[in-house]
Predict the structure.
Amino acid sequence: MHHFIINITVFTFAMIGLIFFALLVYKKVSDFGINAKQNGNLKVVDMLRVTPSKTFYILSAGNEKFLVASDTNSMNLIAKLENNNYVEVN
């Protein structure tokens, strides 16, 4: 009986360690969040979450900035921003 309890305890701690290791690897590999790639030409300048499924982003591409709306199904260009003004895009 004593040997059985030790085996179960060791197995349980090994599984918990494996789960934490898998979670750590998953977080490192799946870094596709909002700030995943900030070193290229395309950058997220700011964001505003209006509802859980609707978000507005200000994106910077080179010297240009764009206001973009995103929801669960699509992403739409709202306006091109120029010198604190905006140019409407249809």
